[in-house]
């Protein structure tokens, strides 16, 4: 009989960033949320939808972004693979970096842990490497947790937001 690992049934709290800048963007994000729930991942909170310009090429369509807080018994590798499956199911295809996409789901924070792991051909880093510089992550994350602290930088989200440029602060709005 296999001995059960103490962490095997641990509940994990994870912030996921959702983004879309192709097609019916709000519908794409709502579908991704539905598919996440269909995978048995419980959504505890979700932010409003936020609109930002595409980066680094502002000629691409604007993005709609959101953050969700989920609760799952999946480990980070299992969750990551489910996310990739969901992106593919929604029609995401391999494209150049920062090019328009139907759906993008990133693990922003996994239990407040610092994780660097290779999963197949992917490099997974949490917290997400550039999240602290991105208004489309910080604003919705702040909406969900005003006390959140960046695990690696050990800085509160208010401090991170105060480091954004005026263009970044003005370049985001709530989607109607």
Could you please describe the fold and organization of this structure?
This protein has helices at residues 25-38, 76-89, 135-144, 157-162, 166-170, and strands at residues 12-20, 42-46, 50-52, 63-72, 104-110, 115-119, 122-126, 172-174. It has 176 residues and is α+β, with helices and mostly antiparallel strands. The chain has one domain (12-174): Alpha-Beta Plaits, CATH 3.30.70.560. The N and C termini lie far apart (55 Å). A hairpin with a 2-residue loop joins β6 and β7. The protein is 28% helix and 27% strand. Strands 1, 2, 3, 4, 5 and 8 form a six-stranded antiparallel beta sheet that branches. Strands 6-7 form a two-stranded antiparallel sheet. It is globular, with a radius of gyration of 16 Å. It has five helices and eight strands; from the N terminus they run βαβββαβββαααβ.
Key phrases:
two-stranded antiparallel ribbon, 6-stranded antiparallel sheet, alpha+beta, Alpha-Beta Plaits, disordered N terminus, 176 residues, 8 strands
């Amino acid at each position: 009989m296999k001995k059960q690992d103490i962490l095997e049934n641990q509940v994990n709290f994870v912030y996921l960033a959702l983004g879309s800048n192709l097609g019916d963007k709000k519908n794409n994000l709502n579908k991704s949320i539905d598919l996440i729930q269909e995978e048995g991942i419980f959504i505890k909170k979700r932010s409003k939808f936020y609109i930002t310009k595409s980066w680094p090429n502002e000629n691409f369509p604007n993005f709609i972004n959101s953050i969700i807080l989920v609760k799952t018994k999946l480990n980070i590798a299992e969750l990551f693979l489910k996310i990739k499956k969901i992106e593919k199911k929604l029609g995401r295809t391999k494209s150049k970096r920062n090019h328009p996409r139907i759906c993008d789901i990133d693990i922003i924070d996994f239990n407040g842990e610092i994780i660097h792991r290779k999963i197949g051909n992917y490099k997974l880093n949490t917290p997400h490497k550039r999240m602290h510089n991105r208004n489309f992550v910080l604003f919705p994350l702040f909406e969900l947790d005003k006390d959140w602290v960046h695990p690696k930088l050990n800085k509160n989200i208010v401090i991170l937001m105060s480091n954004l440029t005026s263009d970044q602060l003005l370049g985001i709005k709530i989607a109607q």
